Amino acid sequence: MSDQTRKFRPGAIVFREGESGDYACLVKTGQIELLKLATPNVPPFATLPPGHMFGELALLDGSPRMATARAGATETEIVVVDRARFVAKLKNLTPTHRELFEFFAGYIRETPIWVKPPAGQAPPEMDSRAKRIAALIPAIENSDRMKTGDAFIDVMVKMLIHYAKRRLPASG
């Protein structure tokens, strides 16, 4: 079984917030926009270029989709990895990689994106979990040992780290 490729016309919905997640995607060409609400006047909170993954958290933890994904302003091609293929990829990982994915996915799902405090207020103290994430990220980013050799999984690691970094309070 191989991964599937799908094309979407500009503005087409790939999936909607709240749906169950039975596949993850990798942007091959074009762009994917992520929205919290699937209405025409709501701007995207993120735009993903080729090489970026989306929809993976729903496969990692079985939760509903966190956002709506739609094709950007040009025709967009994505690589789709269904749940069975995804699970097979994860089964080939070391226990350390699996534990890392679950840890990052849990942190991302449970932690809202950090917002800068109002002028004059100190940023909140990082809890022990955030401190652990902050300590792990540089080691993972700079380690060839964390690469699996599977392009899809390696991109997923990068994306999970990116999402986790966005949720950490700014340091110093």
Task: Walk me through this protein's architecture.
The chain has 172 residues and is α+β, with helices and mostly antiparallel strands. It folds into 2 domains: 4-86, Jelly Rolls (Sandwich), CATH 2.60.120; 93-167, no CATH class. Helices cover 36% and strands 20% of the residues. The strands form 2 sheets. A 4-stranded antiparallel sheet has the order 1-8-3-6. A 4-stranded antiparallel sheet has the order 2-7-4-5, with no helix packed on it. Helix 3 packs parallel to helix 5 (151-167) and helix 4 (128-141) crosses helix 5 (151-167). The longest helix is centred in the C-terminal third of the chain and has 17 residues, at 151-167. The chain is globular and about 45 Å long. The model has no long low-confidence stretch (mean pLDDT 81).
Short summary:
The protein is an alpha+beta fold. It is built from five helices and eight strands; from the N terminus they run ββββββαββαααα. It has two domains: 4-86, Jelly Rolls (Sandwich); 93-167, no CATH class.
- What would you report as the Rg, rounded to the nearest angstrom? 17 Å
Query: How many domains is the backbone divided into?
Result: 2
Order of strands across the main sheet: 1-8-3-6
CATH topology of the largest domain: Jelly Rolls
Strand content: 15-25%
- Range of helix content: 25-40%
- The geometry reads as globular
The tally of beta strands, per DSSP, is: 8
CATH class of the largest domain: Mainly Beta
Largest sheet: 4 strands, antiparallel
Q: Would you list the SSEs in sequence order as H and E?
A: EEEEEEHEEHHHH
